[in-house]
Amino acid sequence: MRHYFIVRLLMMVPLVILISFVAFALLSLAPSDPAEVSLRLNAIVPTPEAIALMRVELGLDQPFLVRYLDWLSRIVHLDFGISFLTRTPVLDEILLALPATLYLAGVTLVLIVVLSMTLALLCVFNRQGWVDYLTRGIVFILTAIPNYWLGLLLIWLLAVQMGWFPVSGMTQYHSVILPALTLSMGYIGTYVRLIRGTMLNQLNQPYVFYAKARGLSERTILFRHVLPNSLQTSLVALGMSIPKLIAGTVVIESVFAWPGIGRLCIQAIFGRDYPMIQAYILMMSLLFLGFNFLADWLQRRLNPRLVGL
Protein backbone atom coordinates (compact mmCIF):
# COMPACT_ATOMS: atom_id res chain seq x y z
CA MET A 1 0.00 0.00 0.00
CA ARG A 2 2.85 2.39 0.82
CA HIS A 3 4.49 1.63 -2.53
CA TYR A 4 1.20 2.39 -4.32
CA PHE A 5 0.85 5.83 -2.76
CA ILE A 6 4.51 6.68 -3.35
CA VAL A 7 3.97 5.92 -7.04
CA ARG A 8 0.80 8.03 -7.00
CA LEU A 9 2.67 10.97 -5.51
CA LEU A 10 5.46 10.67 -8.07
CA MET A 11 2.90 10.55 -10.89
CA MET A 12 1.34 13.77 -9.60
CA VAL A 13 4.57 15.73 -10.11
CA PRO A 14 4.46 15.88 -13.95
CA LEU A 15 0.72 16.51 -13.78
CA VAL A 16 1.25 19.50 -11.50
CA ILE A 17 3.92 20.84 -13.86
CA LEU A 18 1.55 20.44 -16.82
CA ILE A 19 -1.24 22.26 -14.98
CA SER A 20 1.11 25.10 -14.06
CA PHE A 21 2.27 25.35 -17.68
CA VAL A 22 -1.34 25.60 -18.95
CA ALA A 23 -2.22 28.19 -16.30
CA PHE A 24 0.79 30.31 -17.22
CA ALA A 25 0.18 29.94 -20.96
CA LEU A 26 -3.16 31.72 -20.55
CA LEU A 27 -1.24 34.97 -20.18
CA SER A 28 0.43 34.48 -23.58
CA LEU A 29 -2.79 33.29 -25.26
CA ALA A 30 -4.79 36.30 -24.07
CA PRO A 31 -6.11 38.39 -27.00
CA SER A 32 -5.02 41.66 -25.34
CA ASP A 33 -1.61 42.81 -24.20
CA PRO A 34 -1.32 42.26 -20.41
CA ALA A 35 0.88 45.36 -20.14
CA GLU A 36 -1.79 47.51 -21.77
CA VAL A 37 -4.50 45.92 -19.61
CA SER A 38 -2.52 46.66 -16.46
CA LEU A 39 -2.07 50.30 -17.48
CA ARG A 40 -5.74 50.81 -18.31
CA LEU A 41 -6.87 49.21 -15.05
CA ASN A 42 -4.71 51.71 -13.17
CA ALA A 43 -6.05 54.68 -15.16
CA ILE A 44 -2.74 55.23 -17.00
CA VAL A 45 -2.76 56.27 -20.64
CA PRO A 46 -1.27 53.32 -22.58
CA THR A 47 1.30 55.19 -24.65
CA PRO A 48 3.96 53.12 -26.47
CA GLU A 49 6.57 54.22 -23.94
CA ALA A 50 4.36 53.31 -20.96
CA ILE A 51 3.52 49.94 -22.51
CA ALA A 52 7.21 49.21 -23.10
CA LEU A 53 8.08 50.08 -19.49
CA MET A 54 5.20 47.97 -18.16
CA ARG A 55 6.27 45.01 -20.30
CA VAL A 56 9.72 45.25 -18.74
CA GLU A 57 8.18 45.49 -15.25
CA LEU A 58 6.02 42.42 -15.89
CA GLY A 59 8.89 40.53 -17.50
CA LEU A 60 7.06 40.25 -20.82
CA ASP A 61 10.18 41.26 -22.72
CA GLN A 62 11.74 37.87 -21.84
CA PRO A 63 11.28 34.62 -23.85
CA PHE A 64 8.29 32.47 -22.93
CA LEU A 65 10.20 29.63 -21.27
CA VAL A 66 12.34 32.05 -19.25
CA ARG A 67 9.19 33.78 -17.99
CA TYR A 68 7.55 30.43 -17.18
CA LEU A 69 10.51 29.12 -15.21
CA ASP A 70 10.78 32.40 -13.33
CA TRP A 71 7.05 32.33 -12.55
CA LEU A 72 7.27 28.69 -11.45
CA SER A 73 10.18 29.42 -9.12
CA ARG A 74 8.17 32.25 -7.54
CA ILE A 75 5.13 29.99 -7.19
CA VAL A 76 7.23 27.53 -5.20
CA HIS A 77 7.92 30.39 -2.79
CA LEU A 78 4.17 31.26 -2.70
CA ASP A 79 4.65 34.41 -4.77
CA PHE A 80 1.72 34.54 -7.21
CA GLY A 81 2.50 38.01 -8.48
CA ILE A 82 0.73 41.36 -8.16
CA SER A 83 -2.95 41.83 -8.97
CA PHE A 84 -3.65 44.11 -11.94
CA LEU A 85 -6.80 45.43 -10.25
CA THR A 86 -5.65 46.19 -6.71
CA ARG A 87 -1.86 46.33 -7.15
CA THR A 88 -1.51 44.12 -4.06
CA PRO A 89 -0.03 40.60 -3.84
CA VAL A 90 -2.39 37.99 -5.26
CA LEU A 91 -1.80 35.63 -2.32
CA ASP A 92 -2.91 38.34 0.13
CA GLU A 93 -6.15 38.83 -1.82
CA ILE A 94 -6.82 35.09 -1.87
CA LEU A 95 -6.07 34.61 1.83
CA LEU A 96 -8.40 37.51 2.62
CA ALA A 97 -11.30 35.96 0.68
CA LEU A 98 -10.60 32.28 1.46
CA PRO A 99 -12.19 32.13 4.97
CA ALA A 100 -15.58 33.22 3.62
CA THR A 101 -15.48 30.52 0.95
CA LEU A 102 -14.38 27.84 3.41
CA TYR A 103 -17.17 28.90 5.78
CA LEU A 104 -19.74 28.64 2.99
CA ALA A 105 -18.37 25.28 1.82
CA GLY A 106 -18.32 23.94 5.38
CA VAL A 107 -21.95 24.84 6.08
CA THR A 108 -22.92 23.43 2.68
CA LEU A 109 -21.13 20.18 3.48
CA VAL A 110 -23.03 19.85 6.77
CA LEU A 111 -26.34 20.45 4.97
CA ILE A 112 -25.46 17.85 2.34
CA VAL A 113 -24.63 15.19 4.94
CA VAL A 114 -27.63 15.85 7.20
CA LEU A 115 -30.26 16.25 4.48
CA SER A 116 -28.94 13.39 2.32
CA MET A 117 -28.89 10.88 5.18
CA THR A 118 -32.29 12.03 6.47
CA LEU A 119 -34.00 11.85 3.09
CA ALA A 120 -32.31 8.55 2.19
CA LEU A 121 -33.48 6.97 5.46
CA LEU A 122 -36.96 8.34 4.84
CA CYS A 123 -36.99 6.71 1.41
CA VAL A 124 -35.70 3.38 2.75
CA PHE A 125 -38.24 3.27 5.60
CA ASN A 126 -41.02 3.92 3.06
CA ARG A 127 -39.45 2.10 0.10
CA GLN A 128 -41.65 1.68 -2.94
CA GLY A 129 -44.30 3.82 -1.22
CA TRP A 130 -45.65 7.25 -2.13
CA VAL A 131 -43.31 8.97 0.33
CA ASP A 132 -40.33 7.34 -1.40
CA TYR A 133 -41.48 8.36 -4.88
CA LEU A 134 -42.46 11.89 -3.80
CA THR A 135 -39.18 12.52 -1.97
CA ARG A 136 -37.07 11.31 -4.87
CA GLY A 137 -39.18 13.32 -7.32
CA ILE A 138 -38.79 16.57 -5.38
CA VAL A 139 -35.06 16.03 -4.91
CA PHE A 140 -34.65 15.26 -8.63
CA ILE A 141 -36.46 18.47 -9.61
CA LEU A 142 -34.39 20.61 -7.23
CA THR A 143 -31.19 19.00 -8.53
CA ALA A 144 -32.18 19.69 -12.15
CA ILE A 145 -32.80 23.41 -11.50
CA PRO A 146 -29.72 25.56 -12.30
CA ASN A 147 -28.28 26.75 -9.01
CA TYR A 148 -28.18 30.42 -10.02
CA TRP A 149 -31.92 30.34 -10.83
CA LEU A 150 -32.67 28.42 -7.64
CA GLY A 151 -30.70 31.02 -5.72
CA LEU A 152 -32.77 33.82 -7.22
CA LEU A 153 -35.99 31.94 -6.39
CA LEU A 154 -34.89 31.47 -2.78
CA ILE A 155 -33.94 35.15 -2.52
CA TRP A 156 -37.36 36.18 -3.85
CA LEU A 157 -39.33 33.77 -1.64
CA LEU A 158 -37.41 33.56 1.64
CA ALA A 159 -35.62 36.92 1.68
CA VAL A 160 -37.89 39.37 -0.16
CA GLN A 161 -41.36 37.90 0.45
CA MET A 162 -40.86 36.19 3.84
CA GLY A 163 -38.06 38.38 5.16
CA TRP A 164 -36.44 35.43 6.95
CA PHE A 165 -32.92 35.90 5.59
CA PRO A 166 -30.76 38.76 4.29
CA VAL A 167 -30.89 39.27 0.54
CA SER A 168 -27.12 39.21 0.08
CA GLY A 169 -23.78 39.72 1.73
CA MET A 170 -22.22 38.31 4.88
CA THR A 171 -23.63 40.82 7.34
CA GLN A 172 -25.53 38.49 9.72
CA TYR A 173 -24.88 35.08 11.27
CA HIS A 174 -27.65 33.43 9.23
CA SER A 175 -26.63 35.06 5.94
CA VAL A 176 -24.94 31.78 4.98
CA ILE A 177 -28.16 29.73 5.01
CA LEU A 178 -29.51 30.73 1.59
CA PRO A 179 -26.25 30.38 -0.40
CA ALA A 180 -25.40 27.12 1.40
CA LEU A 181 -28.88 25.70 0.76
CA THR A 182 -28.67 26.70 -2.91
CA LEU A 183 -25.21 25.18 -3.30
CA SER A 184 -26.18 21.94 -1.54
CA MET A 185 -29.15 21.18 -3.79
CA GLY A 186 -26.89 20.15 -6.64
CA TYR A 187 -25.40 17.38 -4.47
CA ILE A 188 -28.26 16.20 -2.26
CA GLY A 189 -30.07 14.41 -5.07
CA THR A 190 -26.94 12.45 -5.97
CA TYR A 191 -26.21 11.35 -2.41
CA VAL A 192 -29.83 10.50 -1.64
CA ARG A 193 -29.90 8.12 -4.59
CA LEU A 194 -26.46 6.76 -3.74
CA ILE A 195 -27.18 6.11 -0.05
CA ARG A 196 -30.67 4.77 -0.75
CA GLY A 197 -29.44 2.37 -3.44
CA THR A 198 -26.58 1.12 -1.29
CA MET A 199 -28.84 0.59 1.72
CA LEU A 200 -31.38 -1.35 -0.32
CA ASN A 201 -28.56 -3.52 -1.63
CA GLN A 202 -27.30 -4.09 1.93
CA LEU A 203 -30.77 -5.17 3.05
CA ASN A 204 -30.41 -8.26 0.85
CA GLN A 205 -27.12 -9.33 2.44
CA PRO A 206 -26.95 -12.45 4.65
CA TYR A 207 -26.04 -10.53 7.81
CA VAL A 208 -29.37 -8.68 7.62
CA PHE A 209 -31.32 -11.95 7.52
CA TYR A 210 -29.26 -13.17 10.47
CA ALA A 211 -30.05 -9.98 12.40
CA LYS A 212 -33.76 -10.43 11.68
CA ALA A 213 -33.53 -14.04 12.87
CA ARG A 214 -32.08 -12.77 16.14
CA GLY A 215 -35.19 -10.67 16.60
CA LEU A 216 -33.67 -7.21 16.00
CA SER A 217 -36.11 -4.52 14.90
CA GLU A 218 -35.88 -3.01 11.44
CA ARG A 219 -34.92 0.37 12.92
CA THR A 220 -32.01 -1.20 14.84
CA ILE A 221 -30.84 -3.11 11.77
CA LEU A 222 -30.92 0.00 9.61
CA PHE A 223 -29.16 2.36 12.02
CA ARG A 224 -26.63 0.00 13.63
CA HIS A 225 -25.71 -2.25 10.71
CA VAL A 226 -27.01 -1.22 7.28
CA LEU A 227 -26.32 2.53 7.46
CA PRO A 228 -22.65 2.29 8.60
CA ASN A 229 -21.92 -0.30 5.88
CA SER A 230 -23.64 1.88 3.28
CA LEU A 231 -21.66 5.05 3.97
CA GLN A 232 -18.26 3.85 2.72
CA THR A 233 -18.93 4.67 -0.93
CA SER A 234 -20.66 7.91 0.02
CA LEU A 235 -17.73 9.05 2.19
CA VAL A 236 -15.30 8.60 -0.71
CA ALA A 237 -17.62 10.46 -3.08
CA LEU A 238 -18.14 13.17 -0.47
CA GLY A 239 -14.39 13.64 -0.17
CA MET A 240 -14.21 14.34 -3.90
CA SER A 241 -17.11 16.81 -3.57
CA ILE A 242 -15.19 19.11 -1.23
CA PRO A 243 -12.98 20.68 -3.94
CA LYS A 244 -16.04 20.87 -6.20
CA LEU A 245 -17.84 22.78 -3.46
CA ILE A 246 -14.99 25.26 -3.10
CA ALA A 247 -14.55 25.70 -6.85
CA GLY A 248 -18.31 25.69 -7.47
CA THR A 249 -18.96 28.74 -5.31
CA VAL A 250 -18.12 31.06 -8.22
CA VAL A 251 -21.71 31.54 -9.42
CA ILE A 252 -23.37 31.34 -5.98
CA GLU A 253 -21.02 33.91 -4.47
CA SER A 254 -21.85 36.28 -7.32
CA VAL A 255 -25.61 35.76 -6.90
CA PHE A 256 -25.51 36.34 -3.13
CA ALA A 257 -22.64 38.91 -3.13
CA TRP A 258 -20.64 36.58 -0.89
CA PRO A 259 -17.09 37.94 -0.34
CA GLY A 260 -15.19 34.74 -1.20
CA ILE A 261 -12.64 33.58 -3.75
CA GLY A 262 -15.40 32.67 -6.23
CA ARG A 263 -16.53 36.27 -6.43
CA LEU A 264 -12.88 37.31 -6.53
CA CYS A 265 -12.39 35.07 -9.57
CA ILE A 266 -15.40 36.58 -11.36
CA GLN A 267 -14.04 40.07 -10.74
CA ALA A 268 -10.66 38.96 -12.06
CA ILE A 269 -12.20 37.52 -15.23
CA PHE A 270 -14.18 40.67 -16.02
CA GLY A 271 -11.22 42.86 -15.10
CA ARG A 272 -8.72 40.70 -17.03
CA ASP A 273 -6.65 40.31 -13.89
CA TYR A 274 -4.42 37.58 -15.33
CA PRO A 275 -2.22 36.94 -12.25
CA MET A 276 -5.35 36.35 -10.16
CA ILE A 277 -6.86 34.04 -12.78
CA GLN A 278 -3.63 32.06 -13.04
CA ALA A 279 -3.41 31.66 -9.26
CA TYR A 280 -7.05 30.59 -9.03
CA ILE A 281 -6.71 27.96 -11.76
CA LEU A 282 -3.53 26.57 -10.23
CA MET A 283 -4.88 26.44 -6.68
CA MET A 284 -8.17 24.80 -7.68
CA SER A 285 -6.32 22.22 -9.77
CA LEU A 286 -4.00 21.37 -6.88
CA LEU A 287 -7.03 21.13 -4.60
CA PHE A 288 -8.67 18.58 -6.91
CA LEU A 289 -5.47 16.56 -7.13
CA GLY A 290 -4.99 16.59 -3.37
CA PHE A 291 -8.54 15.51 -2.54
CA ASN A 292 -8.45 12.86 -5.26
CA PHE A 293 -5.38 11.42 -3.52
CA LEU A 294 -7.07 11.60 -0.11
CA ALA A 295 -10.25 9.96 -1.44
CA ASP A 296 -8.18 7.12 -2.90
CA TRP A 297 -6.41 6.69 0.44
CA LEU A 298 -9.72 6.73 2.35
CA GLN A 299 -11.25 4.16 0.00
CA ARG A 300 -8.37 1.77 0.53
CA ARG A 301 -8.48 2.26 4.30
CA LEU A 302 -12.21 1.50 4.40
CA ASN A 303 -11.95 -1.43 2.00
CA PRO A 304 -8.79 -3.48 2.71
CA ARG A 305 -9.51 -5.71 -0.30
CA LEU A 306 -8.27 -2.88 -2.55
CA VAL A 307 -4.84 -2.70 -0.92
CA GLY A 308 -3.30 -5.38 -3.13
CA LEU A 309 -4.71 -3.93 -6.35
> Mind summarizing the main beta sheet?
none
What is the level-2 CATH architecture name of the domain at 98-260? Orthogonal Bundle
Strand content: under 5%
Strand-pairing-aware structural class: mainly alpha
End-to-end distance, in Å?
9 Å
The CATH first-level class of the domain at 98-260 comes to Mainly Alpha
Given the C-alpha coordinates, what overall shape results?
flat
Q: Measured on Cα atoms, how large is the radius of gyration?
A: 24 Å
Give descriptors for this structure.
flat; 76% helix; 309 residues; mainly alpha
Protein model, in words:
With 309 residues, this protein is mainly α. It has a domain at 98-260: MetI-like fold (Orthogonal Bundle), CATH 1.10.3720. It contains 13 helices and no strands. Helix 1 packs across helix 4 (64-76) and helix 6 (130-144) packs across helix 8 (177-202). The mean pLDDT is 79.
Any chance you could write out the topology, listing elements then pairs?
Elements (H helix, E strand, L loop, with lengths): L1 H28 L4 H8 L6 H11 L5 H13 L13 H36 L4 H15 L2 H15 L15 H26 L3 H8 L4 H30 L1 H7 L5 H10 L3 H29 L7
Helix pairs in contact: 1-4, 1-13, 2-3, 5-6, 5-8, 5-10, 6-8, 7-8, 8-10, 10-13, 11-12, 12-13
